[in-house]
């Protein structure tokens, strides 16, 4: 049985208008990572961190999935083997595009997490500073996203999928952030064929056996056609 593992990053949502992190016009050009995407930043300046994620959450609510998200959902539905979809994205565009199952390794904008007791619930569109946890009452609500210095979610399940995969594709990710940037090597060790699908070569392009460059709305549907047809 063939096992496909797909890893997606901000590039797949770029043409939906979500914006990427790195490069010209990227989020990290105007905003320092250390100011909004670390536990230390949240402890130091929760107003700034909540404002950043409230803005991202509200933006995410206005955007629509594109042809790349839809093509992946089609692959998940129509492929006779297993397709494991892992995303670093905190938006819900894979779900909106029809994906039946998505592993959000960096969490979700739609989620709230209690920093005191780890309870999870649906985030309000505007999460105020000191919002009380509905379970323990601590004024410790935070976005349920994985910050730099924190452990990504679902790693055991992800490593299980990678060690048995036969085809691995990384789509729209710059290859700068680990552990995701190292998944290609796990897949290679498992004997999988590896494909990078991105606008331009990523930082780890040399680890891939095959590359396909161009905008995701064109390259991803074409790749899915090839996988389903071949
Ligand atoms: N189609 C395909 N790829 C694109 C497109 C497009 N239309 N537009 C941009 N890209 C590519 C860029 O060339 C770049 O290589 O998408 C990649 C996006 O890279 P990053 O902005 O670094 O995003 P990502 O790799 O997902 O970042 C990983 O970093 O800050 C953290 O937690 C955040 O999950 C994120 C992680």
How would you describe this structure to a colleague?
This protein folds into two domains: 1-16 and 65-106 and 152-230, TPP-binding domain (Rossmann fold, 3-Layer(aba) Sandwich), CATH 3.40.50; 19-62 and 108-145, SIR2/SIRT2 'Small Domain' (2-Layer Sandwich). It is built from ten helices and nine strands. It has helices at 11-14, 27-30, 33-36, 39-44, 46-60, 67-78, 93-96, 155-163, 183-189, 216-229, and strands at residues 3-8, 82-87, 103-104, 107-114, 120-122, 141-145, 167-171, 193-198, 210-213. It has 230 residues and is of the alpha/beta class. It has a six-stranded parallel sheet, sandwiched between helices. Strands 5-4-6 form a three-stranded antiparallel sheet. 34% of the residues lie in helices and 20% in strands. It starts with a strand and ends with a helix. Adenosine-5-diphosphoribose binds at residues 9-11, 14-15, 20-23, 26, 88, 106, 172-174, 176-177, 198-200, 202, 215-216. Residues 9-11, 14-15, 20-23, 26, 88, 106, 172-174, 176-177, 198-200, 202, 215-216 line the site of adenosine-5-diphosphoribose (APR).
């Amino acid at each position: 049985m063939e096992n496909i593992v797909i890893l997606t990053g901000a590039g797949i949502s770029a043409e939906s208008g979500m914006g990427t992190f790195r490069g010209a016009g990227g989020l990290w050009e105007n905003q320092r990572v250390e100011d909004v995407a670390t536990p230390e930043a949240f402890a130091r300046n929760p107003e700034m961190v909540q404002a950043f994620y409230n803005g991202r959450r509200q933006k995410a609510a206005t955007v629509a999935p594109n042809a790349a998200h839809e093509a992946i959902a089609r692959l998940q539905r129509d492929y006779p083997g297993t397709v494991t979809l892992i995303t670093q994205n905190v938006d819900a565009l894979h779900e909106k595009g029809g994906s039946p199952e998505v592993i959000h390794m960096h969490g979700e904008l739609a989620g709230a997490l209690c920093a005191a007791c780890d309870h999870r619930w649906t985030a309000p569109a505007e999460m105020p500073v000191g919002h009380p946890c509905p379970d323990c009452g601590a004024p410790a609500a935070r976005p349920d996203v994985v910050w730099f210095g924190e452990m990504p979610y679902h790693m055991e399940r992800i490593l299980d999928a990678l060690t048995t995969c036969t085809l691995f594709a990384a789509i729209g990710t710059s290859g700068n952030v680990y552990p995701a940037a190292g998944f290609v090597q796990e897949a290679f060790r498992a004997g999988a064929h590896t494909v990078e699908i991105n606008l331009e070569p990523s930082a780890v392009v040399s680890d891939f056996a095959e590359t396909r460059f161009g905008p995701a709305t064109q390259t991803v549907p074409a790749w899915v056609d090839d996988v389903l047809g071949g």
